[in-house]
Each structure stands twice: as C-alpha cells, then as structure tokens.
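To: structure subgroup
Subject: Chain for Friday's discussion

All,

I'm putting the inputs and outputs inline so they're searchable in the archive.
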Amino acid sequence: MQVIPSIDLTRDRSRLVWWPGAGSGSGTPTDRPERIARAFVEMGAPAVHLVDMDGPGQGRPVNLTAISAVSRAVAVPLQLAGGVDGPEQVELAFAAGATRAVLPMWVAAEGPERLAACVRLAGDWLAVGLDARPDRLAEYPWKRFIPPTLEELMAELLTAGVRRFVLSHASADLDRLQAITAGVDADILVAGGITSIDTLGRLRDAGVSAVLLGEVLFTGAIDLTAAVRAAA
C-alpha cells in the first residue's frame, strides 16, 4: 500500500505551512508547495496529491503556477483534485504537469457524456472522488428517483471505464471497505479520517491501494517516513 502526501493549494501556495523542524526549533517553515513536495518525496513518498482549493469555485484548476512548480520539482506521479470538472479541465491539469486527475462525484454521477470524454482522454490516469458516508450519499440531490448506494455507484462507474477511486471517510468501516476492495477491479485510495499510524496496517490488510495523508503530516501527528514503513 502506498502512502501519498496531500497538499492543499490556494493562491499558488500551500494552505498549511510545512515546518519539519518545528519540534526542535530547527529548519525553516515554508508554504512553497514545490519545496514541501520535494521534502515528502525525499522521505519516501511515491506520488503527490494536490488539491486545488480555488478550483471548484471557478470550475477549473486555478493554481496552475504551483502545479507546474511541483511537477518540475519531483519525478513522481502528480495527482490533482479540485476544479477538474470535465475533459477541458483534465487537459488543463495535464498541461500544467499533473499526471493523474480526480473528478468530483457530481460529474461522475450525473454527467455520463462528460465522464465518457474524460475516460477517453485520461484512461487509467483518471480517478473519481466519492464520499463513502451513507448519509452524505443519501443527502446528495440526485436526479434519479432512487439514490444509489456507494457500491451501486462504483459498479456504474466501473462499467463506464473508471479504474481508480478516491474514497473519503472510508476508514471507519473496515469490513465494508474490505468488501469493496475485494469486489471491484480498481485501485482504491482512502482519504480522510486517518489520525493514527496504527490504522495504516489495517487499511493495507483490507486491500486498499493507497492512503492520502494531509494535515496529519503537517502537524506531525503522523511521520511520513514511519508511515511508509508501516504501510509496506
């Protein structure tokens, strides 16, 4: 199982300041995403996940300067979420240096033609982000008469050609997660709700392909090097 650091971007900077020496008062804090990404890769990160926090409001990736800077700084896959709402936005993300793109659930669930165009463009480098919490799925303003379950929605997306899913808030129910990983021919990435390094082994054993860690790496709650070892 891979451990992939996640960096939130806003105004071409990291939303959170990275200060690896905060505990000892050594080193220099930085909000430069390319410096943070380089540090994470040097610590063993096999890929980097970027979240364009400004993108959803404008319907396209906005932090292109930061994305390009990160792509030049590290030689690992670069996955982008936020504002990637269609094929034009996927092309924009790839042109900026991203190598993977994550569609939001609303595009995947309610835009079959747009989804098909994204699959044709990105193939296996396309992922779909889904909220695994049943209540959130039920609250979504579906255009269909009966809201789908997470498993039903994933089955639809698999049929459409999606082969990578980013599940948020999925780590709380490991039995369900293991059933999902066993039942789908796709990479399952888990994001959110991971606050302890002890959880990583259980997610690995449940068949998860990768976990995305964000704020816990910036606060020092989880050490990336130790997390990479624990997930291996």
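Points worth raising on Friday:
The two ends are 6 Å apart (CA to CA).
The mean pLDDT is 93.

D.
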